[in-house]
Amino acid sequence: MTRMINSLIALILSIVLLVSGNTFLTTLLAIRLSNESVSADTIGWVLVCYSVGFVLGTLHVQKVIASVGHIRAFAVFAAIAAVTALIYPMAVSMLLWATLRIMSGFSIAGVFVVIESWFSSRATNANRGALFAIYQIVFFVAAAGGQLFVNIGDPANFMPFSLAAILLALALVPLSLTRMKAPHIEQAQRISVATLIRKSFSGVTGALTGGALISSFYALGPVYATLAGLDVARTSIFMASAVVTAMLLAWPIGRLCDRFDRRRLMFWVALATAVIAAAIGLLNITYLPLLTLLTALFIGLSATLYPTAVAITNDRTDATRIVAASATLLLTYGIGSVIGPIVMAQLINLLGPEGLFLGNAGFLLLLAVITGYHISHTKDVPIEEQEHFVPTMPETSPVLTKLDPRNDQFQASPEAMEMEEEQKRTHKG
User: 160 and 223 in one domain?
Assistant: First the structure.
């Protein structure tokens, strides 16, 4: 295992630099737009363009990678992401920034496909569960750390944008120096959304809702914090605590998912999260520790909706089609991530900053109603027949779904098998 991790150090460093730079830039943009007195609905439309670009990227970047190779494609995508970060402070134009967000989302999707392909190429049946967990931990820690960079410099100046560009550009260095062989990328197979809805309407609804909630918070959470009177330093803590809590809640929810019916669990999680969101929106909390705690619980529980939706869907899907179903759920999550910020931005305009949480409470109540209806009208999957719950995060490309330990059709790459055989020989020696 140690040797495997050592072989992935370059990938891990690139992930840390990329994710921290990208999350830093997203929060920075939201704060800058809010400070420029741009309306919430305009901010929502601009920032949601990232999700549009990301979804398009996951569908099309494989063609670019196949034509020019992994290293060149990675260099192109990372360079585009870094350049867009440098252009933002040159002109505060909504049309320009919306275009840059689409370009950024597309390029970040491309970078993820390259990195996750390399990660997958090192996986065998013996280690892919560990690799899957390592990737997610690294991702969440980097995302939380990226929020804290917002404290460096005034968002009105060019310096923070330059720092984000530096982080994104530096992600090129470790991976460009790697001596690992470029892996083969297969086009992700998907089940049609209509077919998946027939198999698991609750799962599709959960993924869609999860996308709406998480995306709207990451896009508009800094706007809420600014309108609520938090300074930049407190806003960064406010956002970072939410990311950390999302990672910490994955384990206990996973334990519950393996012991109880998953649709019922999603029903109660949706209700509990709706109550928390409504409390934040209605009570107008100004005490920062309490606000941070409730918001962290809200986003932490919201982040469990997607992996629970994946588990619900997998319980009703043939083992041979788990990866295809997961890829379609990821696309569904992406659709939700486009819808969420647009709707929440309108509600912030109508109701003030509390509209963000009141709108999310409405989405959650709708999810609870839909889930409750299907619980009462369809049969449960017996607990003993449920697939093992695996914490999954949607802020990735479909490539990573192949590492899911529930994937019975996983096939290790020749490079990974060779490394495993060498480790066995070394152990015997």
Answer: no
Nearest 5°: the CA angle 182, 123, 172 is 40
* CATH code, 172: 1.20.1250.20
User: To which residue do tokens 């134009």 refer?
Assistant: 93
Residue 95 and residue 225 in one domain: no
What is the C-alpha separation between 95 and 185, in angstroms, rounded? 34
Dist CA 43 CA 38 (whole Å):
7
Query: Which stretch of 20-24, 155-159, 216-220, 415-419 has the lowest confidence by average pLDDT?
Result: 415-419
Q: What 8-state DSSP symbol labels residue 389?
A: P
Structural domain harbouring 282: 188-396
416 part of a folded domain: no
Q: Please check whether residues 91 and 227 belong to one and the same domain.
A: no
Please indicate whether residue 302 or residue 247 has the higher confidence score (pLDDT): 302
DSSP characters for 168-216? Answer: HHHTHHHHHT--PPPPP-PPPP---HHHHHHH-HHHHHHHHHHHHHHHH
Give the C-alpha separation, 395 to 211, whole Å. Answer: 10
pLDDT the model gives residue 79:
92
pTM: predicted TM-score of the whole model, two decimal places? 0.84
| pLDDT band, residue 32 (cuts 50/70/90) | very high
Sign for the CA dihedral angle at 87, 116, 6, 182 comes to negative
Q: Tell whether 220 and 100 lie within a shared domain.
A: no
Those residues whose C-beta lies under 8 Å from the C-beta of residue 332, and which sit 6 or more positions away, are 193, 196, 204, 207, 208, 211
